[in-house]
């Protein structure tokens, strides 16, 4: 299969070459976004020898150029910087086709959310204004819980002894260099959590699953990415919580454009970077705004849904089963 002319491919960005420099490529294998006759490194050879990965490469190239055309000068700079970082530290470190596929899936999901990220304005100031002006009604079922929740809500509204915890790191791209120290041993944000969903796996239901990949869904992160540092029991030890929005995609997708963003385990993860483990802690997926708050030296997750009616949830970090829920709708009008 041959390609004639295209814009300079983002999968081979070089420092001195303009992003829109035109060239004619005589690619003879699988129509990757670059000239496969000049494939120099192992990853490029994998791409050129795999029809499916070539489609992923081609689609990412198209999506990148579309975002570049819409981006401001600052956004263009960041897009190109993150793309170069992805090539060097994510894709080009792959040694097999499975790794390359996942590198493309995760990058496609992040790039697909770029327009949303551009409008990301869920600020702490907005939260404080909502809490101080909106009417919330507790949905607690017993008097003791109701009293505790009311005390928390009153404190939130009056901002008494309550602090919004600032993340140690907050970035809008998995390829931001601030995450590099955290990615030395683990694929934080890229393949952070793998969880089974047999109900969505026809091979498992029919008894024909042969490999673990047949029925396991890697969760790919979407920005923002945040890492919070929380003290443990007033000691010198620190607990790290990782936050991301997420999407998931099956490893045997046939359509190169079938990435599904925003439907996986979004929220906070208990992060053990030394052992490459991350446990999904909180919250339910419907929350739009998420943060961590400090109330009298105790830490809580906070989630706010800003749909037609506000919904507010607060759960202790150490006991997420205990929670306070409020709704803008009066349950006893």
TrEMBL record:
Source superkingdom: Bacteria
Claim: Iron is one of the keywords in the record: no
Signal peptide: 1-31
UniProtKB keywords: Signal
Residue ranges of every copy of the Lysozyme inhibitor LprI-like N-terminal domain listed in the record: 36-102
A GO-annotated cellular component: extracellular region
InterPro entries: LprI-like_N (IPR009739), Lysozyme_Inhibitor_LprI (IPR052755)
One Pfam family matching this protein: LprI
Official protein name in the record: Lysozyme inhibitor LprI-like N-terminal domain-containing protein
Source species: Methylobacter tundripaludum (strain ATCC BAA-1195 / DSM 17260 / SV96)
């Amino acid at each position: 299969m041959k390609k004639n002319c295209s814009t300079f491919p983002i999968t081979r960005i070089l420092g001195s070459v303009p992003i829109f420099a035109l060239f004619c490529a005589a690619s003879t294998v699988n129509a990757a976004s670059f000239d496969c006759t000049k494939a120099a490194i192992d990853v490029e050879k994998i791409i050129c020898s795999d029809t499916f990965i070539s489609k992923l490469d081609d689609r990412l190239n198209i999506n990148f150029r579309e975002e570049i055309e819409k981006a401001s000068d600052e956004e263009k700079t960041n897009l190109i910087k993150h793309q170069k970082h992805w090539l060097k530290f994510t894709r080009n470190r792959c040694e097999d086709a499975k790794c390359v596929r996942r590198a493309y899936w995760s990058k496609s999901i992040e790039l697909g959310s770029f327009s949303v990220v551009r409008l990301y304005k869920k600020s702490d100031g907005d939260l404080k204004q909502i809490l101080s002006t909106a009417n919330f009604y507790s949905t607690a079922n017993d008097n003791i819980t109701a009293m505790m929740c009311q005390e928390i809500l009153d404190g939130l509204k009056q901002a008494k002894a309550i602090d919004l915890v600032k993340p140690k790191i907050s970035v809008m791209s998995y390829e931001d260099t601030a995450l590099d120290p955290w990615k030395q041993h683990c694929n934080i944000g890229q393949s952070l959590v793998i969880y089974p969903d047999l109900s969505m796996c026809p091979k498992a239901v029919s008894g024909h699953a042969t490999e673990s990949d047949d029925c396991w869904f890697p969760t790919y992160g979407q920005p923002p990415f945040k890492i919070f540092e929380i003290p443990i029991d007033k000691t010198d030890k620190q607990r790290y919580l990782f936050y991301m929005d997420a999407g998931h995609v099956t490893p045997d997708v046939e359509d190169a454009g079938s990435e599904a963003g925003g439907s996986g385990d979004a929220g906070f993860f208990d992060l053990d970077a030394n052992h490459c483990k991350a446990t999904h802690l909180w919250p339910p997926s419907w929350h739009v705004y998420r943060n961590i708050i400090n109330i009298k030296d105790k830490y809580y997750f906070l989630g706010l849904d800003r749909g037609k009616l506000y919904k507010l949830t607060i759960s202790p970090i150490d006991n997420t089963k205990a929670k306070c829920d409020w709704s803008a709708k009066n349950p006893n009008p």
